Amino acid sequence: MEKGFHQPALAKLAIEYLVHNQEGVYVDCTLGGGGHGYAILERTSPRAFLIGIDADPEAIEYAAQRLSRFSNKYLQQAFFDQLEVVLHEAGKHPVDGVLYDLGISSFQVDEERRGFSYQSEGPLDMRFDPRQKVTAAVVLNGYSQEDLGRIIREFGEERHWRAIAREISRRRETAEFRTAGDLAAVVRSVVGERFLNKSLARVFQAIRIEVNRELERLRASLEAAFQVLKQGGRLVVISYHSLEDRIVKEFFREKYQSCVCPPELPACVCNKVRELEILTRRPLSPDEEEIRANPRARSAKLRAAEKIVPYREGQE
Fold it and tell me: Which positions of the chain have pLDDT values less than 50?
C-alpha cells in the first residue's frame, strides 16, 4: 500500500521535545502515514504506549500497516478535537505528550478524487473525513456571497477576496460548482496569471479550512490536550501557515501568563497562575539540509511547551 503521505517535517526535533519518559503515553493527533508515530515507538520502551488519531480513514489504514509490528498502540479515526473521547476509549489518561503535525498530506493533495488540489479536475470534496456532510461544493454553491468573502479573507488571507466571492456568486447562478477546476477558473478570471498560483493556494486553503473546521477544532483540541497532560507533559505543534501558528502562539502565551489583573489594581485578585513553560521562545524552522531533502518542510514551524501544573482527574 504505497501512498504519498508526506515525510514529516522537523521529525527529529519534534521527537526530542516530545519524548521525555521512555515508558510514557504519547498521542499523535495527526497520525497521517504514521511517520511520527513510528519514531515515537522506536524511541521509547515497549512499555510506552502510542495513541494515534486522524480524521482520514485512509491514513488510519496506512498507518496501521506501517506500525503493525508494534502492539503498544491504539489508532482511532476521529478529528483531533475528539481527543478526550479517544483517550477514554483507549483507557489511557493522563498522558506524557501530545503532538500535532498540522496541514494536509501529499497523498491527500495528489488524490484527484479528494478535490484538494487546484491542479486537479476532481470533485469539490475536500473532506478529511468522508462521513462529514459539508463538502467544498456545499460551501461554494450554498454559502452567501458575504460568508464566502469572509472565509476567503480570514482563512485564505487573500487580498482579492471580495472580487472572488462576487464572481463565485455570479457564476453559480447559471451552473453549479462541481470540480476543483471550476473554482480554479473563477480565481484565474479575477486574479490573472501573474500571481495566480499563490491566490489559488490561498482560496483552496480557505475553503478546505471551512469544510473541516480546522481552526475551530485546533483551538478546542489544544485546550483538551493541555488538560489531559500530566504535570511535566509536553505539547509539541508543527504548523505550516500563519493562521495555525498564531493560534498555537496565543494559546501558549495564555497558559504562560500568570496574573491578568488590570495594572491599576494594587494586588492580584484573579488568582491566575502560570500553567506551562514555553520551551521554544521562537518557533523552530528546518535547516537548509532538511528543506533540500523535503521541500514541503520549508514553511514548517515548531513550538513546544511543558505543563507545570498538576493533572486534575475529571477535568478532561
Answer: 1-2
